[in-house]
């Protein structure tokens, strides 16, 4: 590949970023030895830093962290483009994303009508179900690598879909702030007793998974 200055004014910025990634992969000895699995910790770190920027409201940091996360996408796509058995590049990724977004927004790109967020969600879920018709469980596609609290919330939604009730013994907080206080208090209690709060929640979610799968069994 001929080197091209990715900052040239006549180059589309996204295309320039992709070309920069190509040249880095070609000429940086550290980058050359990275594969998809080795890149995962950096993806997790960059995602967390983007979340921090969103939650703190720092616009400059938000723009920078979005760029860092985009670099991760370009990095994975560039690695994939050089795979001998099943190559694809950033154009394939973008094309697939566009096709999916068009399918899932028939009220934007088709004749469907949705005038409320709830109606949009119905259309989205219907399109997703059609795409994922080979899934046999509501748990298919749920990543166990999600943070435990996010995973627990996701699991509770899946449990409701199959009629599994997960009781909550503590009194319901009256606000999100009180919820934060309650969660922090539970973690403090775990620390006092020498318990691992992360492990405790993950094991309970794993038990919920078993309940969901049992409920799905004819």
From TrEMBL:
Residues 36-109 form the NTP pyrophosphohydrolase MazG-like domain. It comes from the Bacteria. It comes from Microbacterium rhizomatis. GO terms for molecular function: nucleoside triphosphate diphosphatase activity. It holds the Pfam family MazG. One of its GO terms (biological process) is TTP catabolic process. InterPro entries: MazG-like_dom, NTP-PPase_MazG-like_N, NTP_PyrPHydrolase_MazG. SUPFAM superfamilies: all-alpha NTP pyrophosphatases. This is MazG family protein.
């Amino acid at each position: 590949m001929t080197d091209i200055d990715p900052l040239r004014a006549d180059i589309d910025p996204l295309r320039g970023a992709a070309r920069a990634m190509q040249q880095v992969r070609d000429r940086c000895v550290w980058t050359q030895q990275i594969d998809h699995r080795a890149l995962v910790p950096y993806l997790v770190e960059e995602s967390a830093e983007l979340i921090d920027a969103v939650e703190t409201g720092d616009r400059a940091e938000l723009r920078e962290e979005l760029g860092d996360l985009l670099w991760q996408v370009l990095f994975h796509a560039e690695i994939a483009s050089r795979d001998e058995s099943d190559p694809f590049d950033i154009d394939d990724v973008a094309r697939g994303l566009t096709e999916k977004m068009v399918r899932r927004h028939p009220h934007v790109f088709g004749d469907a009508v949705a005038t409320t967020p709830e109606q949009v969600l119905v259309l989205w879920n219907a399109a997703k179900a059609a795409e994922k018709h080979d899934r046999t469980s509501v748990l298919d596609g749920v990543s166990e690598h999600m943070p435990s609290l996010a995973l627990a919330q996701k699991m509770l939604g899946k449990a409701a879909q199959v009629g599994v009730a997960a009781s909550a013994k503590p009194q319901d907080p009256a606000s999100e702030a009180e919820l934060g206080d309650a969660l922090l208090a539970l973690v403090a209690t775990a620390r006092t007793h020498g318990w691992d709060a992360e492990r405790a929640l993950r094991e309970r979610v794993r038990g919920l998974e078993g309940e969901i799968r049992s409920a799905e069994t004819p």
